[in-house]
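Collaboration report, partner site 2.

Our partner group contributed sequences for two proteins of shared interest, and the home lab folded both. The records are reproduced in the order in which they were received, starting with the first partner submission.
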Amino acid sequence: MIVLSANKLTKAYGTDVVLEDASFAVNAGDRVGIIGRNGAGKTTLLNILSGEWEPTEGEFFVSQDSTVGYLKQRDNFFRSDTVIKAIDAIYKDIHRVEGELDKVTQTIEECREKGSEPDSELIYRLDSLHNEYERLGGYTYKSEMTGVLTSMAFGPEDYEKKIAELSGGERTRLALAALLLEKPDILLLDEPTNHLDIDTLKWLEQYLAAYRGTVLIVSHDRYFLDKVVNRIFEVEHKHLYSYKGSYSAYAEQKRIRRESELKAYNNQQREIRRQEDMIRIMMEHNTEHLVKRAQSRVKRLAMIDRLEKPEEDNARMKFRFKQDFKSGNDVVMAEDLGKTLYDRLPYRHLFSHVNFDIKRGEKICILGPNGVGKTTLLRMLLGELKPTEGRIKLGTNVAFGYYDQGQQMLHDDLNVLEELRDSYHLYNDTELRSLLGRFLFRGEDVFLNVGSLSGGEKARLTLVKLMMSGANTLILDEPTNHMDIESKEVFEEALQEFEGTAIIVSHDRYFLQKIPTRILELTPDGMVEYLGKYDYYLERKAMEENAAAREKAASESASDSLTVKEERALKKAAEAEERRRKREIEGLEKKIETLEERIAEIEREMQMPENLSDFNLLAELSKEMTGLREELDSAYADWEGLQEF
């Protein structure tokens, strides 16, 4: 069933056309990845589909019964709200029903206290409210809320934090948690993977893969797209192209499409030239017969539907990192490093016992959950923060270049050209504009205000400054956030060619599979080293987890020291416990069946015409049903618990 479709959607700002003649249909349950360069029109498309913007031309259709939820790159929380208040606002319908239930219940109790019976409308209202409360998930919403918040790295200690106190990444995660809890039929997600650590990314992948609704995701995370989507929409050169399958399938299909289009274009051009040559030769002979044949060929040639030449990929960043001078072989070493934050109560311990030794030319990627202190560690390497314990030792001639994920080192009040001129006074404007052009800031773009740039544009501007710094040791904090896929590929190539050292915090798993010579995992208790790329890291992690599980099982088992008699007794006890568990499961299943039959019977009794005017009976039945439903929920919970053994 089609839940979302568009016909010749066009969006223009004056004479600047961003999107042209986009037509597509999305079926219920589709998971669509929307890709394209920064500024190609991906977010514009989501804004139109969400109803926030009107298309210049064309139309789109959203199924009448479908609800739409939209995760933007900027959230709309109130800064004075707390985390739990912002999330709790999602459940306004549940709270409304709770309030009405309290009022109706209180009115019924007051009637009985006065010795009178409540009227039938009141009883019906009470039963109706109970049914609505259950339908809305009133009995389960609190556990669901805490589960999603925990998955988004918000513990109970974070619930009373003000929104104003949260970082940009925390606000993004909170906005995503809020939207997932709303469970709209159609999810529109704009860069949902930014600011998520690897564990949270895995959880989100599993959640979206099992999501019952329809999902459209703007993302540059190639690994994520491979795991989640079954279709790709690419916005390229103002047009939208649709592909079936994951990102990897799209990449292959696009290669084949471009080769096919170029081949068809070249074949047609050869045929046109051949026909033109034939016409020229015939006209040169200037006989009546040949002139007529030439004129006939001219008419046929004019009727050909000429193919447009496929647009070439010239608008691609071009740059290399160069170091002005080499560092010594030893770049940076940490000895028993630790950090505790004392700026607020309660004190927050980040990590301790961190040791590492980084040599010239290495590409080191640092992993770890959000909040463990990865950015703090980078700032300690730069000398901006001091360790609480241990020490950092820098090698000779180490010159750092820093890429901060929040891009706080840019000046919002300057334009692009001024931002570069402010840092590099020895270059003239012509040289600076030439450098900016290599990073796709062309023409009047250099006069854009830095504060008005998109995340991807700020990322490119930061890379210009980093490239010009001549640093021999790059400190990069989530450098691929906000980059489009092509920019990531160019950046990865430049980093692989860089002869200096790079220390990188990243959760981009595609990036982690290409770049690092080593992976260092930061934990609260120290640093764990993995001598390889991301696949090797996953393999080693799985081996470590399996080994830990085996060790735990071995420590819990005393079979090595048991006699044959003791082993036999333990086996009998285990068999007896299994028989008891099966008996309990059978008993619970019978109890569940009995409860469900009685609930169905009560529902039938309450609907009988002869009982509709018996208020006392209806009240008793409603009360009994409430108790039975609670008992049924408990029985199901016990049954599920026994299944897990």
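Second partner submission, folded after the first:
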Amino acid sequence: MKQSFIPCRLFGTVIISLFTILASAQTDSVDLARMSLEDLLKIKIATNKEQVLEEAPSIVSVITRKEIAAYGCRDVSDVLRLVPGCEFGVDVCGQGGLLFRGIWTPEGKLLIMLNGVMINDPGYATYNFCGTLPPSIIDRVEVIRGPGSALYGGFAEVGVINIITVPSKKGNNVALSGNGGLVGSNGYTVDGNLFVTGSNEDLKYNINIGYAERPLSTKEYDDFFGNSVRLDNNTAFRKWHHFITEISYKRLTFNFHRTYFDFSGKDGNYIIGEDFLGQNQDIYNFSSNGTALRYDAKIGSKFTIIPQIEFLSGNSMTSSYSPLSQNGIYNMKEGQNMQRIKGQVTAGYNFGKAGELTIGAGYIKDIAKNTSALGTPGLFSPMGDTVFSVYTESKYILFQYVAKVRSFGFTAGTRYENTSFGEAFAPRIGVTFFKEKFNPKLLYGKAFRIPTPWQAYTRSFNAGLDLVAELTGTMEFEIGYKMNDIFKTRVNTYFINIDKPILYIGTANSYHNFGKIQSLGIEAELTAHYRKSRGFLNISYNKPRENTSESFVTSNKEYFLAVPKYTLNLGGFHEFGKLSIGSTFTWYSEKYGESQNHAQGLGGPDNTRYGSILLTNLNIVHKNLFKKVTVNLSVHNLFGQKYLLVQPSYGGHAPMPANDRQITLGAKLNL
């Protein structure tokens, strides 16, 4: 009782203190800060057309580099915790995925891009967030909190995340950054990045090369079947490597990324794997290679045509050993490889006051290659025979019209995609109003999620050759209000309906279209922006609707599995000359997961309750020390709360400890 009382009392004290500081700063001149940086920041992910947040026909969040640095974010998962409705869960082999608006987004429900190029793993279309993409490379993170298939296609079902790296600077510049610190009881963290950038009148370039390592946790992990292991840098490591570059010459832009992520999934499929010859054998890797070339051609003052090509390759989850490979079919060591080839052409015409029209067409080819552990073909073909490789195709056209009539904005668009799994159709329509202080939005969109060839044709499972695209409809309504030059608020409500989601069925050992997911929620935000201070408060509420299938919810259908019904985020920072002090607080209400009895097959659907938790972070930054050096000291999970990643399904996976207390000292040197 005493332990829970202290964080709650401190939490209340800091809330009062934060807004007292912000209120006291009101005497500062605000002429240079009448609009927040988010207002001034141009975004493109909502329509591929530059707009401010209030005019974008989507519910959009933008986390800027200044905020990322001020709050001491360690990776992209820390950044997303600042966004309403975000939480994380766990799946096989210790993978940390995003829960968003109550929905488990891995396996193709969320599009993640790096500088506009997809980085979802090409096998399962998921992303392992914990320990990836260090903040030193990030300029901003743009998040569409809603459907994006009309523009982006098959993985942008419930949201889109675009991570933008630090842009080029004038002249030639070199910067070195690094962090080191302690994690939990016996762990350590270290990361470093080399940033090289330059530009002249025609040529711009930037290069990031870096490494990061830390454990997921240093606590004891117990599976549901009587096995236990102490997590640390050996048994629960996360090791990240990256090489990322963007080069532009006049209107031609070239992007390349190579990311390589090694991680330990000591829990395997759902049972802790035994060491072999004293070494942890549950070591996995996910790599992503992306190359993109784009040309922005302007013909006159009103017509634009943009051809672009992308080539992606990588593996989904490779291992030298895994419980999943013991059947002699699934070779995770060398035989698994996926590729994507994409070509697209879009054309836009600006009619002036009459609006702007965009049309486009494209082609996507997904290729999966696999050799079984026995050296035989590791895939099924669409006809059912065994093969070494298989591919699927998508051909699509898209259309979008954006117009502004006085204070009203109108957006209508659609995407039609003909795929190897059938046809998919994603219309969207939006009406916005933006005048002075008042900013409502009414939005409706359909979206889809296309199966991957790996899920449909791999011999690791009984192939789901009858898979079709899952379809989603989303209704959103938002009201924004600017109280004064300092405070802004917005409230949105949403309803998401996913029909026949693609789901792994353990009893059949295959993927199938099964059931329904319905999510209803509300999100509210308050932001404050002064010349030297900034603060935010957001609250989200989520609940599954009664038609949601039993596989995704608790036995009483009151909660999505692994998802807290309420989430509250509070943060703020103030600049005292060269010194900046920032703090964030994330409170999750109780959440539920599968019980141990149910995992062991000892009863029907049954759930275990995990209590509410408060994560408290503190970050201190000193800029321009010795003119060219910036140093920071950060503490995450200050009170050492026991944070658990819970599996959002009845998959027999016990909750995984994560996010231990971490103390980090970092520095950045501009050469």
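Feedback sent to the partner group on the second submission included the following. The CA atoms of residues 143 and 536 lie 17 Å apart. Confidence is low (pLDDT under 50) at residues 1-42, 322-332.
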